[in-house]
Amino acid sequence: MTDEPEYDYVIVGGGTAGCVLAARLTEDPDCRVCVIEGGPSDVGDERILRLRNWINLLGSEFDYGYTTVEQPRGNSHILHSRARVLGGCSSHNTVISFLPLPEDLDDWVDRGCTGWGPDVLLPYRHRLQNRIVPVADKDRNPIARDFVTAAASALGVPVIEDFNARPFAEGAGFFSLAYEPESNRRSSASVAYLHPVLDRPNLTLRLETWAYGLLPDGDGRLTRVQVRQSDGTTATVRAARDMLLCAGAIDTPRLLLLSGVGPAQQLRDLGIEVRADVPGVGENLLDHPESVIVWETHGPLPPNSAMDSDAGLFLRRAPRGPRPDLMFHFYQVPFTVNTERLGHPAIEHGVCMTPNVPRARSVGRMWLADADPTRQPCLDFRYFTDPEGYDEKTIVDGLGIAREVAAAAPLRDWLKREVAPGPDIRTDAELSAYGRKAAHTVYHPAGTCRMGADDDPLAVLDPQLRVRGVSGVRVVDASLFPTMPTINPMLTVLLAAERAVDLIKGTRQPGEAR
Known about the structure:
Helices cover 21% and strands 19% of the residues. By secondary structure, the chain is of the alpha+beta class.
């Protein structure tokens, strides 16, 4: 054990949250921090740094590429991309940047997450170091502009210039992105937080290093992590204070389960020694499911764009609801990975809309297939299985509403024909069957180590982000979400990480009373 390098904090996962923690904690020159990241650096790698290349990262060497178990009411062929690179999903996704809506955080407080309401969490927006701006004028493609105009006129919703200026219930407009419009460079968590401080002597990055087990120290605290290094050798790294798990909503619960923290009987059945019976580890698997409707355009589109999905639409189908209950991304490229598999034609030039369910009621779970740490875990999102059929109805409504927008000027003048599902698919039953088979993910898994009250039997974390039943471990990533935010969650993860820094340090939060 004397050979084990020791740091004040060990961060497992150099992703969106891990980069924030590493940068903030090492502001104290006496605080030694080690980041364990399974992927390579993004520094100087244009494949990662150029935002518009994001779609080429899916299924690449930078993607862990998780799959699901059979989805009887959904699509069983979805590749759940998880980033394998410094910066995590903020180095891999479209960096669409929405502040969480206040009601989303009220839901968290209602679930027992004291100190996580909008009055506390939203003021952290002023600490974010990412450059977050609406899509620049030069990147606003004419067809995307016409989509926004058509959606607003057809549906009677406002055009929103900045979705982060104030909470909204509905509207169409260009998204805010974490990027540098001048260069199309990402302003990811790694770019914004880590790149400027890589020379700090108290910061150690161990890249291409994969964590596969937590071990106790002499006092029984789980502050030692077993890792496999890039050359295949193994080592153990120790945290003098806390082990901070930031590996994401799949790999954080996976690491806890492999370490004997989870549902006791499941662990015993796999031959894993039980360190703590924590039934909620791996439960509450959340996502934003979406479907797709595709049109062929009359010809090639103008080339300018930030990342080919620059604009969108939020709708409130329940007129009195304070939040949207239906969202669309508008793609300036034909996203046909699922529709071609169903027999719909491939097209060279086209666009699509992707209706998605902002707060899906279907909830899944993840678990270990066996005790082999190299084997991928089992993911069952249970898409479209909520008893009331709410998620399914949302997709059916979304496909119909997308057609309304496509039929409105000036967007309709760009469109040659609908290729998927095609104009012959009209009834709710037909739209449901197509919509579920063509369904995809917005790559937002969350909730698998949810935070909650002491009397919540499936809460893995307390509101201080400490793992129940063990000591020395906190979780800081999207797995802490008790419920899914309405919007794309990257900023919610960044805000949660900034909040976690204050919890770890024991300092007062900007939204808390003195």
